[in-house]
């Protein structure tokens, strides 16, 4: 089975890792990584996002051991539009989080309009931090939590703006 998922993945955290694990349980994985131009448009909060090549390098490092454990293949492709790669006919399943489920349904509408079979939409629940709130890249960047959801109130975050 060919599985698609997409995102900005900056920084990668345990919530993302749960998405990756589920994707590799199902099949070979293609990750759409948002382009430098698209990334700021997909964020709910304005903040600096690292360049595509840096995010891709970190993503490859995360995916390789998971792919090896499941004996699966993976590919990372650049996303230039929100519906991305999932509208292409070769995919069978789409991994989404609860807040992106609606986007998955929209992708299936596009696929149907193009004469492709709809994707199986697999929703992976959020991972909670120590405080019970969900782990998010924005919270990590703000310095509230680390990548594992541990509270870090005294930690300096990377900040919301591009470093000087």
Task: Identify low-pLDDT runs.
Answer: 159-164
SSE string, helix = H, strand = E?
EHEHHEEHEH
Record the strand order, biggest sheet.
Answer: 3-2-1-4-5
Task: Please estimate the helix content.
Answer: 25-40%
Notes on the structure:
The termini are far apart. This protein has helices spanning 14-26, 39-42, 52-70, 101-113, 137-142, and strands spanning 2-7, 28-34, 74-79, 93-96, 120-123. With 164 residues, it is an alpha/beta fold. Helix content is 34%, strand content 16%.
Topology summary:
Blueprint lengths: L1 E6 L6 H13 L1 E7 L4 H4 L9 H19 L3 E6 L13 E4 L4 H13 L6 E4 L13 H6 L22
Parallel strand pairs: 1-2, 1-4, 2-3, 4-5
List keywords for this structure.
164 residues; alpha/beta; 5 helices; 5 strands; disordered C terminus
What does this entry show, briefly?
By secondary structure, the chain is an alpha/beta fold. The protein is built from five helices and five strands, in the order E-H-E-H-H-E-E-H-E-H. The N and C termini lie far apart (44 Å).
């Amino acid at each position: 089975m060919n599985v698609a998922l997409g995102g900005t993945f900056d920084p990668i955290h345990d919530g993302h890792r749960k998405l990756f694990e589920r994707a590799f349980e199902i099949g070979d994985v293609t990750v759409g990584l948002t382009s430098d131009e698209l990334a700021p448009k997909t964020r709910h909060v304005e903040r600096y996002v690292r360049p595509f090549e840096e995010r891709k390098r970190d993503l490859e490092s995360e995916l390789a051991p998971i792919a090896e454990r499941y004996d699966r293949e993976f590919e990372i492709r650049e996303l230039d539009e929100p519906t991305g790669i999932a509208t292409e006919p070769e995919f069978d399943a789409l991994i989404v989080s609860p807040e992106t489920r609606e986007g998955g349904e929209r992708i299936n509408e596009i696929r149907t309009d193009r004469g492709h079979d709809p994707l199986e939409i697999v929703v992976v629940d959020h991972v909670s931090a120590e405080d019970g709130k969900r782990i998010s890249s924005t919270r990590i960047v703000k310095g509230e939590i680390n990548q594992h959801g541990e509270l870090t109130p005294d930690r300096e975050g990377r900040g919301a703006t591009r470093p000087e």
